[in-house]
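Lecture notes, unit on protein representations.

Consider one protein chain, 138 amino acids long.
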Amino acid sequence: MPASSAGLARTPTSFVSEQQRGYVPNPGALEQVPVGSSQEQVLLVLGTPSTVATVDGEVFYYISQKTKKVMFLRPEITEQRVLAVYFDRKDKRVTRIADYGLKDGKVFDFVSRSTPTGGSELSMLGQLFNATSFNPTM
């Protein structure tokens, strides 16, 4: 065990605590649900998703977050991941799997190693303007 400069052994303290929340995949779980797997197989291997979206086909989201807290300070997020399993609308088969995280403050897909391109999604204000008849360019 490493010793500190005072000659005392270093032991973990309660000053710093780390916490894992949400979905923690088993090692090798993603290899068991390749593209083309059924929705039932995904549920058996990965379990119940954190949330489900049904906009363009169905998507299962498995969300996890690691935080670190030093004494009474606000917890700091050290890692945040969202595993998204996309299904075909008709036959409920896996079309793709994405592992999103935060890298430099941007959403980052760890599977394809890419960030979403701009322009295809509306911002919050763009959605608001689109929902109303207000058009600031006219």
